[in-house]
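Review form for a predicted model. The reviewer records the input and the model, then writes brief findings.
Reviewer: anonymous (R2)
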Amino acid sequence: MLELREIGVAYGVATALRGVSLRIGAGELVCVVGPNGAGKTTLVNAIGGLIRIVAGGIELDGADIGALPAHEICARGIAMVPEGRRLWTNMTVRENLELGGYRSGARAARKEWMERVVAMFPLLGARLDAPAGTLSGGQQQMVAIGRALMAQPRLLLLDEPSLGLAPAIVLDMFNVIRDIHASGVAVLLVEQNVARALEIASRAYILDEGQIVAEGTPAELRNESHIARAYLGL
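Model under review:
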């Protein structure tokens, strides 16, 4: 489905990603874990078209998307939940969700998908007309995920969805991610909560200082003692 081949990203003269290659199959749940500053958010932004790559290529279903703008990448079936949620806090929950369904292929089914999102996040049903900024952090993350789902993606990019959430809410959030994946949506999960991410992923990549330093199934990575000690906290 999605394949990155030796991509590079730079901010001026500073290199952020070097020779990063990874793949995500249709309907697969893959996680990318690593320390702060490793380049995880840069990776997600590059896939979503928010940052231009300076080397390598990004292919979706065999077609090069590395130079496409973000709205065209979304139109091809990739939606993103950014780090920090980035909601329009003065707009209502309903308005934030509706904004996710404005791509041409999703507009006709906005009402149906709004109902699906509310069914997935019942707490939002009573808050649809409240300003998004009045919600708790966990509820705002629900809105951010719901907004991405309104675009009806085939691949969902999740950048640090558990960041800043209470432990009980984190558990709920990972259950939601598991349910989204079970519905047939492929997921690329970027997370610092390594233990939770490895519980639900089929494969994982470890990113450090802008490079992939290890990849494999969660079991394979746990069995590599130097990887487990250095990156997995085991």
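Findings: The first strand starts at residue 2 and ends at 11.
Further findings: Residues 84-152 form one domain.
Recommendation: see findings above.
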